Amino acid sequence: MTQFTISGSRRLADVRYEIRGRLAHRALELERMGYEIISLNIGNPGLFGYRTPETMRLAMIENLGSAEPYCHQKGIFPAREAVVMQQQNRGIRDVTAEEVFIGNGVSELIDLTLRALLNPGDEVLLPSPDYPLWTAATVLNDGSSVHYPCRPEAGWIPDPEEIESLITKRTRAIVIINPNNPTGAVYPREILEALARIAERHHLVVFSDEIYDQMTYDGADHVPMGVLVEDTLCATFCGLSKVYRACGYRVGWVVFSGNRENAESYLEALELLAALRLCSNVPGQWAVQTALGGFQSIGELVSPGGKLYESRQAVLDACESSSYLKLTPPAGAMYAFPQVDTSRLPDFDDYRFAMDLLEHKHVLVAPGVSFNVPYKDHFRLTTLPEPAVMAEAMGRIEDLLHAYLVNEI
User: Fold this and answer.
1) Helix (H) or strand (E) holding 100
2) Alpha-carbon span 46 to 191, nearest angstrom
3) Kind plus residue range of the DSSP H or E element containing 206
4) Which of 197, 179, 199 is nearest to 187 (CA)?
5) Would you state the pLDDT for residue 195?
6) Residue ranges of the chain with pLDDT lower than 70?
7) Of 114, 72, 62, residue with least CA distance to 97
8) Which of 215, 291, 374, 395 is the most exposed place for a label (fewest CB within 10 A)?
9) With the CA atoms of 210, 62, 44 and 238 taken in that order, what torsion angle do they form, in degrees rounded to the nearest 10?
10) Sequence-ordered alpha helix ranges (H) in 95-211
């Protein structure tokens, strides 16, 4: 047989997604060998006993007969209108169903919105740490990722002046992830207002990833970016996956508000791309109206006594008592991003730690370098499991770090 090599695209050389990468593959191998793995690498509520509200399931089932044809490339009207009503209730009053695009989750929409915007070499301002799909989608669409630091000593809140200093003539957009994945930071209004004014001064598109918008703790206030941006284009991303625990439905949306008069060419390009992929998953779209208009059960889960709140508390308690971990308490989302004390463990490497933790303690986490940071002393874990499971996993992490200290591993 002729020997030759079929190579992957060079575009993927700078793409990271260790959340589902080599570590996850090894975890699957260990499970096939009979080991029970505590998987904390992915924010996937359905794997941890969180059910999609029954009313959403019924709405989808009752409309299956209407879900067989393709729908409009922007999505079915009832779903888009429900998103409009939600935006209006939050004070974003200048949107109609025409400004709403439904996609196969926010993930697809991140790709489409960047592809419609970027020319080769255009720059996008992205948080560091970030959700790595944003950086990957920028790179894959021929853009250049410029990361603005969100530092643990600042509570993971970015510095607007530092962000503005990174803007060049090639900068096209700024990405804001709030509440943040992986850190759980919820940005104060004054920071968001400053970022809105920067975007307006420099005519940048604001991409605001708000998929965890209702998932906040201890009185943290999520401020929608759409209420602050007026004189440039603001794209707000949200969906059913997290707040409504419906990851598998693959339903997300992006809403365009602010100054749309100067963005007609861009929005036409986005509609063209939406048309090329025909439409997004139609059955899941029928759950949107019921989800947004019904009882918001997420409130109980993130309040004291709720499962998400108590599991997060188990992580906070473990880090507070740890000899090796420091943690800025996550104010939102479903993750924690602990830092390892390298004064005690100067040779600590997050990727080696994640692999050792999997092999020796059967706990799967995502190393910090997965989130486009320049340091190697953090890791991300999801706070979705039961509090007792979280406590067990944190105990195994502490044991491994102690084994490092006494050179047992």
Assistant:
1) strand 100-103
2) 34
3) strand 205-209
4) 179
5) 98
6) none
7) 72
8) 374
9) -10
10) 105-117, 132-140, 160-165, 189-201
Question: Dihedral angle at the C-alpha atoms of 41, 45, 50, 51, nearest 10 degrees?
Answer: -150
Q: Measured on CA atoms in the order 52, 55, 61, 66, is the torsion positive or negative?
A: negative
pLDDT given for residue 13 in this prediction: 77
**Would you state the torsion angle of the CA atoms of residues 191, 108, 129, 193, taken in this order, to the nearest 10 degrees?**
0
* The two structure tokens encoding residue 101: 């695009």
What is the reported pTM? 0.95
CB-count exposure of residue 341 (10 Å: 0-12, 13-18, 19+): middle
Write down the pLDDT at residue 6. Answer: 83
Let me know: does 327 contact 339? Beta carbons within 8 Å: yes
Question: What would you report as the CA-atom Rg of the chain, rounded to the nearest whole angstrom?
Answer: 21
Closest CA to 61 of 286, 337, 336, 281: 286
What domains, with CATH codes, occur in the chain? 10-51+300-405 (3.90.1150.10), 54-293 (3.40.640.10)
For 312, the enclosing helix (H) or strand (E) is helix 307-321
Q: What is the pLDDT of residue 250?
A: 96
Among 219, 189, 251, 196, which residue's Cα sits nearest to residue 332?
219
291 CB-side CA count, 13 A: 30
Spatial separation of the C-alpha atoms in residues 202 and 125, rounded to whole Å: 12
The 3-state DSSP class for residue 250 equals coil
Contacts of residue 118, defined as CB under 8 A and 6 or more positions apart, other chains included, come to: 124, 138, 141, 142, 143, 172
Calpha distance 232→355 (Å, rounded): 44
Q: Determine the Cα angle at 30 with ends 25 and 6, to 5°.
A: 30
Alpha carbon distance 200, 164 (integer Å): 11
CA-to-CA dists, residue 296 to 46, 253, 255, 290, 397, angstroms:
17, 18, 20, 10, 34
Alpha-carbon span 332 to 7, nearest angstrom: 41
